[in-house]
Amino acid sequence: MLSQSLIEDVLTAALSTGGDFSEIFVEDRFTNNITLRSSKIETALSGRDFGVGIRVFKGLQSVYAYTTDFSKDGLVKAAKNAAQAIKGNSVISPAPFVQEAYGTLHPIQMMPQEVVKSRKIAVMKKASDTCKNYHSSISQVTVRLMDEEQNVLIANSEGKWAEDKRVRSRLAIQAVAVSGNKMETGFYGPGAHSGFEFIENLNLDLYANEAARIAVTLLDASPCPSGKFPVIIDNEFGGVIFHEACGHGLEATAVAKNNSVFANRIGERVAPEIVTYIDDGTIPNEWGSINIDDEGEKARKNVLIENGILTDYLIDKFNSRRMGMESTGSGRRQSFRFAPTSRMTNTYIAPGKSRPGEIIAATENGIYAKYMGGGQVNPATGDYNFAIMEAYEVKNGKIGKPLKGATLIGNGPKTLQLVDMVGNNLGHGAGMCGSLSGSIPVNVGQPMIRVSEITVGGTKGE
Amino acid sequence: MRIQEFQVKLFEEAAAIGFSDVEIYFERKEVFGCQIFKGVIDQYEIAEDGGVSFRGIIDGKMGYAYTEKLDDASIPFLLKNAKENAEFMPDEDVEEIFAGSSSYEDRHFFSTALNEVTIPEKIQFIKDVERELLAMDPRIVATDYCLIRTTSVTKSLSNNKGLSLSDQMNYLYVMVEAIVKDGEETKTSFEFKVTKDFQSLDAKEIAKRAAEEALSQLGSRNITSKDYPVLLRNDAAASLLATFSDNFSAENTQAGLSSLKNKLGKQIASSMVTIVDDPFLEEGLGSRNFDSEGVATEKLTLVESGVLQSFLHNLKTAKKDQTVTTGHAQKDSYKGAVKVGPSNLYILPLESSLEELVSTMAEGVLITSLSGLHSGANQVSGDFSVAANGFYVKDGKVHFPVNLMTIAGNFYQLLTDVEKIGSDLTFPLSPIGSPSLLIKSLSVTVE
């Protein structure tokens, strides 16, 4: 994307005031974003994002500059602007580049840029029709298709030269159901680190009907009761609870500054023995997967909690300095506009032994959360909240009537200790995760699990 | 390539392949940011960036494309994609390229004085905030996100119908999260200040507010979970209003996604509630002289004394509702399509201070922050159940902080249930603002 000599000049300029490490991130990204509402195209957007991020470290100081000006003068100026934040004389110069060879873990069959839009729209229309035809109460269907091809080049003063192409595709289906003056929505949004083949091979009957079914079910759902209950959380996107309650607290962003409830606890028991928590960027073609992270480190499988014992954190290059620990291939960013920091990829609870039916049958009076919405955590306190999209009451070991309007709140480390059953049906769900380095694609995942007690904030009162 | 040169070439080539009406929207941004941790610069950010959005009408339909790379190859890229995108648009409700309003306000949202504040001055200021904060109380153990940031944005819009407009804006914000610990208990607070007047900033004042906010939460206790009268402090009320503000967009009413559809002229809120949209607030983050279609902006009353007066419109939604645009066409950036969005939207403040509002409560809960609004609120139905921090109020006094809570209710019901409105209008790092609101009743669940 840019020549080696130009990049060497930029890295040298960035080190001119005494920095001990410099890095360049070049991004050239092509995106398509199409929205179909009520069977008509509402928006069709295409674009090209292009820019360069330059980073300099000196000890525990990190400086970041970015620009869309790709001329030599523009880039050297940006590097010098960054260098000005550091005071001193040049101490090192960049090492010769070594191009790292690695095969892709995520083969792509159909590049989105090469597929005509009519073919994409045909799939969207089919998804919309399927969803609309599910039930007469479905009043509105919105289908969004997003695809992107992100080309990146990462080079640094340690001689790293790594290039990668990330291709992602996602289809998001939202159904609105109406009955009288009640209006409810259902959503399903599968995504993958794949080309158009992922969209074309999607089982639309499953996904479109599921979005519709959720909306229709909620029309007849009762307000969720409030209070403390055993909560059964189903697989796939259910994993968002541990993404919030635990994953963010294991990111070096919070751990390095000692601002996480999990800081300085490696080797300690933080969960029951049935809990193993893994972040794995190498799973073929998954939504949160990568070949290399945004600092050029190869993706890997990091076991964060093994049989209840805290074993590792998610660490990026800068925080690895503060922590004195190696990077775990977890440096990620939304785009060249963000300095990378430690983030999750595909994070999940490893499958256990219980069958889902056994978990339900073993629960006398509780809540079954079939699908989750999103959530949020404060890593310093561990307090989290997240929304349930579709829930049911569980009475005497059986699933009862549907419930709506519930939020779960609690404290991550405490909730983790209360996991008392782990199912055998591991599944992953696609989501977008927002944090310091922007919004990035991640998978959350788990089998069905049960937590012996969570505070449920419903609309019904106690 | 310079933008002027790029525009000339782009318009020429667009005309050659059959575009009739064309528009170019250009955004340029300069950013400086600096974060301090334990007295030293931890993060430092300096940037210049921008991009170009093209839209044009071909065969009677509008197509869009954008690029951040201004080179020769980007011109055919924009035109090919815009043409292909236009092809699939429906034949009806076509967007238009606007020839211009009869006159425009010429308000200034760019402070030259702010632009002249040097980087060392900004760094020194944020270092002072952290130092003052850490010195305030031994229970303050650290800061997170102790940062200062300045942004300056230029937006230009030109088309082949003779319109050529430009707006410039800058602002500065300071943000600090204080972490306090007492025994096993950890609490955090989030304090911020947005301004164009650097000289008005007081590091000690910001530090003091952050410290007080965090320390006041220590010693939290349980209360019975039930329905309480709830006083939403200004920042919490504003965040709730922001979550549901799309319901005032004609785009949402026309798509059947807003319960305010068919409610024009009807009472939708307590008679105390007046909601306005004002594009000319000096310090407003949403201030603008023209909207994303180039229409002149003006002040608009959405709700007056509880009665719904207007929706927010752009040219397309106005045509559909047989009315005129209110100047609320909005693009997220050059990457987005023209949608509908507020400029600075807020609930009009009344007379009472927060303390006076508290003093009127026999028993209830004062909510100081909400979280999980992106997931715990259903925009369409208005139902919400979100995490909250706050205090127990009894006999007109704030008694003690309460453990993590959820508050649940329905936004439309809440508008009707507003019993008192404070004088303390605030815009929490957002173009949507509110004073404190006393709500008749919400369901409160305590952890």
From TrEMBL, chain A:
InterPro entries: Metalloprtase-TldD/E_C (IPR045569), Metalloprtase-TldD/E_cen_dom (IPR045570), Metalloprtase-TldD/E_N (IPR002510), Peptidase_U62_metallo (IPR051463), TldD (IPR025502), TldD/PmbA_N (IPR035068), TldD/PmbA_sf (IPR036059). Residues 23-85 form the Metalloprotease TldD/E N-terminal domain. Residues 112-219 form the Metalloprotease TldD/E central domain. GO terms for molecular function: metallopeptidase activity. The keyword DNA repair does not apply. Keywords: Hydrolase, Metalloprotease, Protease. It holds the Pfam family PmbA_TldD_3rd. The keyword Transmembrane does not apply. One of its GO terms (cellular component) is cytosol. GO terms for biological process: proteolysis. Belongs to the peptidase U62 family. This is TldD/PmbA family protein.
From TrEMBL, chain B:
Residues 115-218 form the Metalloprotease TldD/E central domain. Residues 22-86 form the Metalloprotease TldD/E N-terminal domain. InterPro entries: Metalloprtase-TldD/E_C (IPR045569), Metalloprtase-TldD/E_cen_dom (IPR045570), Metalloprtase-TldD/E_N (IPR002510), PmbA (IPR047657), TldD/PmbA_N (IPR035068), TldD/PmbA_sf (IPR036059). Residues 226-445 form the Metalloprotease TldD/E C-terminal domain. SUPFAM superfamilies: Putative modulator of DNA gyrase, PmbA/TldD (SSF111283). It holds the Pfam family PmbA_TldD_3rd. One of its GO terms (cellular component) is cytosol. GO terms for biological process: proteolysis. Belongs to the peptidase U62 family. GO terms for molecular function: metallopeptidase activity. This is TldD/PmbA family protein.
